[in-house]
Specification:
This protein is an all-alpha fold. The protein has 13 helices and no strands. The radius of gyration is 18 Å and the shape is globular. The chain starts with a helix and ends in an 11-residue tail after the last helix. About 10% of the residues have low confidence.
């Protein structure tokens, strides 16, 4: 019904309504869903009387998996739209979708619950390999968007992803984290926009932490291919670890809401 309501509205406003409806589902069922997510968002075209709390009780992660390709298609279309009003929330949708694709299978997770920690880590890493490459590329493009507002939203989205699903960032020797690092590092160096720079620095810290790159000696070697960082990205990471990482980590708060979905 979300798609039907959006189609009835038409135009980019309809696409925005559809995206917000999809976000309501992702918040209710996907990774990081909490009771705090259950207030109905304004303007979301979901069936009458069906808040996120109702969605969460009637849907499950296995059901969500079946519609993830549809949600991804909508988010990718929004990410490439000419309207920045669509590209901004698209970044948050992509982050939630990537996190959902990287969610371990429920039955597999149940088997290791309360058991071997290393087995749980390996399970999370294996699940993270199922994240579609196109979703990561779309999010990476938004980090380098021509609009500073879109870039800031994308930074917040990457920060949310790093907190929700760090295994996605670190899997396959940090392939996803490395893909996003270059654009995040570039945003962190934009001195003309202190809001963007500050947001990117916080994202930079969370991204490095999720990948386990918290010291210069833990960074992958520079170069091309899997398991390596682009020279400019590695150089920026080295500089950030020397100058800013500890300070930003000490200042960052779990109660800071800059990474909330839009």
């Amino acid at each position: 019904r979300i798609e039907e309501s959006a189609e009835a509205m038409g135009g980019w406003e309809g696409s925005l309504a559809e995206l917000r409806g999809h976000m309501a589902i992702l918040r209710a069922v996907g990774p990081g869903a909490t009771d705090a997510d259950n207030a109905p968002p304004p303007g979301v075209p979901i069936p009458m009387g069906r808040t996120r709390a109702h969605l969460g009780s009637s849907l499950s992660l296995p059901m969500l998996r079946k519609v993830l390709p549809t949600l991804l298609g909508s988010a990718e279309a929004a990410a490439s739209h000419e309207r920045s009003e669509l590209r901004q929330p698209a970044s948050h949708a992509l982050a939630r979708i990537i996190a959902a694709f990287g969610e371990p299978d429920f039955e597999d997770a149940a088997e290791v619950e309360g058991g071997d920690e290393q087995q749980a880590i390996e399970l999370a890493q294996a699940a993270a390999l199922g994240v579609p490459r196109g979703a990561v590329q779309a999010l990476s493009r938004l980090l380098a968007d021509s609009s500073s507002d879109v870039r800031l939203s994308a930074c917040h989205a990457v920060k949310k992803l790093a907190r929700l699903r760090p295994s996605v960032m670190s899997a396959n020797t940090g392939a996803v984290g490395g893909d996003l690092l270059t654009a995040v590092a570039a945003a962190a160096q934009v001195k003309q926009n202190t809001l963007l720079q500050s947001g990117a620095q916080r994202t930079f810290m969370h991204l490095l932490t999720a990948c386990g790159w918290t010291a210069i000696e833990s960074l992958p070697p520079s170069g091309g291919g899997v398991g390596r960082l682009k020279p400019e990205a590695r150089s920026a990471a080295e500089d950030f670890l020397r100058r800013s990482y500890r300070r930003i980590r000490a200042m960052d708060s779990e109660d800071e809401h800059s990474d909330e979905d839009q």
